[in-house]
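Hello again, I could really use a second opinion on something today. I've been puzzling over a protein and I'd love to understand its fold better. I'm sending you its amino acid sequence along with the backbone structure tokens. It would help a lot if you went through both lines with me. I've dropped the whole record in just underneath, so have a look.
***
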Amino acid sequence: MNRERYGLLRRFLQSPFAHLMPYTAANRQEEMQAQAFLRHLLKEARREEAWDAPLAETRFVVIDTETTGFQPKTDAIISVGAVEMSGDRVNLEQIFHSYVHPDPFQTVPKVIMELTGIRDEDLASAPRLEEVLQDLLHFLKDSVLIMHHADHDVQFMNAGLQRTSGLQLTHRVLDTCDVANWLYACPASVSLDDLLHQHGIPVEGRHTALGDAKMTASLWQKMLQEVQQRDIFTVGELFESVVLAKRLSKR
């Protein structure tokens, strides 16, 4: 039996496929290193000391995704856009944007193509979800995440992370809908368009991931200034105020 085993090994090593063995091992090592680094990034994202950080000095990242539908288990992320902010300053030199190649590939529904302008051709040569999410986490670092109707984006990103790496987002997330509910007593269903109009922010690139992220960043800039006018100056104070307002609105 041992001689047969060694004979098979020898024949494999002499075959044209022998180069696959070290290649696979190297790939596996790279994957393990990447996974370890992602876990480190996600751990850093929840640092306790960030709770007491001044809002004026906090790094925010505003995120938006475009998807093929509303079901994270069956639909796919097809575009991700993100914009960095330092306090209430929008840094348009630090942006993230990528189309996403669905895996397995699925065509863009006509209604989504008409809404977003994203075509199958845009996705065919795009990086796959695992690569995009890894690059996104590198961009996010330990920032506080800002989204409009955050549940949709978070559910899709968590589904993608779980499927590709067995991980979940650990970042603190602020939903502009919840902050608007606290600041203006807006309903939970308030649209991004309504808030943009309320604050006189021009609508440009609507229903594109990067366009919506940029407009939401402009919105967050104005909202954050109003937050501080209410004598809320730290990340923790803001979260506590928003969560309390959300609970009271459900009574």
The radius of gyration is 22 Å. The beta strands are 59-67, 77-86, 89-99, 144-147, 173-175. The first strand starts at residue 59 and ends at 67. The CA atoms of residues 103 and 128 lie 7 Å apart.
